[in-house]
C-alpha cells in the first residue's frame, strides 16, 4: 500500500486528486489533505508518506519552501497552474509534475510512473535536492529564506540577512534577530542568492554587500570586512577580488 | 567711450528684463483675460530698465553733455525697450503655450496607450497564468460532483473574460459598471478559495454614477487578494469602500497582511505602480493614490477627480 498526502490550498483542487485516486484505491491510501505548507510539513514529518501531491503556490510558505524544511523528502508529484521557473525546474529534474487542469490520463501516467520506479527510492532525496536548487534560481524564490527553529517555521526576508557562515553540515544565517541554522551548503546559497547583493568573501562566509561599512587590511593578503552590526568578517584574497568587482572599485 | 558703456548697460538691462519675462511665462501662462497684465508687466519692466540707465550711467562721470542727451532720449529709450520686451513676451508666450499643448497631447496618447496595455495585460493575466488555469481546474473538479455549479462558473468566467476583452473607446466608466466587472472576478475567486475569501463592498447610491478609468479596480483587488490570502492561512476579508467627497470619487481597498512574512512588495510592473501611472497620465497628478500599512491592515486609497 502506498501512503499519500495531498497538499493544496484550494479545496476543489484537492477534490480532483481525490477523485482521480479512486481508481487506485487498492494500491494507494490517502492519509490526509492539507490546506497549507505548515500543515503539510507537520503531516509529512508525522506520517512519513511515500508520495506527496504538492501545489507550488500556497499561503505563507510555498511548496518548494516547505520541501526544503523536510529532512527526508518523500517522492513528490507537483501540481501547478502556471509558473515558468517551476516548470523549468521540473523539466530538468526527473520528478513528475501535473499542469492544472490535468486529465485523468495524464494523472494515471504520473501515478504509474511513480509506482514503476518506487523500488529505487534511494535517489528521490537527491533528485529533490537538485530540483530545489533549480527552483531556487527563480526570482520569486530568492527573496526570502525559510528556516526551522525547533518546531516553528521562521521566514527571513533576504534583505534582513547580514551574513552567512558555514557551520559543519549547516549554514548559519545571521540576522539582527539572531542566527538561524539551515541544512544547506554554502555552495547552495552562493548559487541561489542574488550575486549583486551577496558575495562569498571567504570559504566559510557569504556577506550582504549592503551591510559592509569598511574594509580593513589584515595580515598578508587578507582583509576584514566591518559590518554595520560591528561584526568582523574575514575576506580571503579571492574574496577580495570578487568584492572589488561587485563594488566596482 | 560713453556710448560703449551706454550700449553695454542698456543691453544688459534689457537682457535681464527679457530673462525675467521669459522665466515668468515658463511657469505661469496667462489666460486670455490676463494678457493685459502681461502688457503692464512689460511696461513696468521697461520703466525699470530706463530708470536703471538714467541713474547708473551718471555714475560713470561722462560729462554734462552726455547727461543732457540721456535725459532727452529717455522717452525713446522707453519705447524701444518696451517694444523689445513686448516682442520677447509674445514669442515666449507662444512658445510655451505650444510646448504645453504638445505635452498634453503626449500625455493623452500615452494614457491611451497605457489603457490599451492595461487591457492587454489583463487579458494576458487571465488567459495565461494562475487565474485562468486554476479556475479551469476548479471547474474540472466541480464537473465531477456539482455539475450545476460548474456551469455557473463557466458562465461567470466567460462574462468576466468578455468584460476585459470589450474594446472600450471611452476612457472613463461609471463605478457601477466597474463594480459589476469586479464582482464577476470575486465570485470566481470565491469558488476557488472557498470560505477563506470574504469580501465587503460598500458603495452608496450617489457614487454609483461616479466615473473612473476602466479596469482600474481589478488589479488593485487582485493585489489585495494575493497579499491577503498568501500571507495567512486563515480566512481573509477584503473590503472595498467607495464614496464621493468634494468632487472626488474615493475608493479604499483594505486587506489584512502579515508584515513579518510578507514578501517585499515589488510591483509586478502593473499592480500598484501601473494604477498610479495610469492615474498620472489621465489626470496629470501624482497624489491620487496612497498606501498605508498599519495594524496588519494594508490600505490602498485612490482618488478619482470628477470632472
Automatic annotation (TrEMBL), chain A:
Modification 4-aspartylphosphate, positions: 55
Gene Ontology molecular function: DNA binding; phosphorelay response regulator activity
Coiled coil region boundaries: none
Organism for this UniProt entry: Mucilaginibacter conchicola
Residues annotated as domain HTH LytTR-type: 145-249
Domain of life: Bacteria
Limits of the Response regulatory domain: 3-115
Name of the molecule in the record: Response regulator
Xref: InterPro entries: CheY-like_superfamily, LytR-like, LytTR_DNA-bd_dom, Sig_transdc_resp-reg_receiver
Keyword terms: Phosphoprotein
Gene3D superfamilies xrefs: 3.40.50.2300, LytTr DNA-binding domain (2.40.50.1020)
Keyword Phosphoprotein: yes
UniProtKB/TrEMBL annotation, chain B:
Membrane-spanning residues: 6-23, 35-56, 76-97
Lineage: Bacteria, Pseudomonadati, Bacteroidota, Sphingobacteriia, Sphingobacteriales
Record has S-adenosyl-L-methionine as a keyword: no
Domain of life the protein comes from: Bacteria
SUPFAM superfamilies: ATPase domain of HSP90 chaperone/DNA topoisomerase II/histidine kinase
Protein name according to UniProt: GHKL domain-containing protein
Keywords from the named record: Membrane, Transmembrane, Transmembrane helix
GO cellular component, one term: membrane
Residues covered by the Signal transduction histidine kinase internal region domain: 118-197
GO molecular function: phosphorelay sensor kinase activity
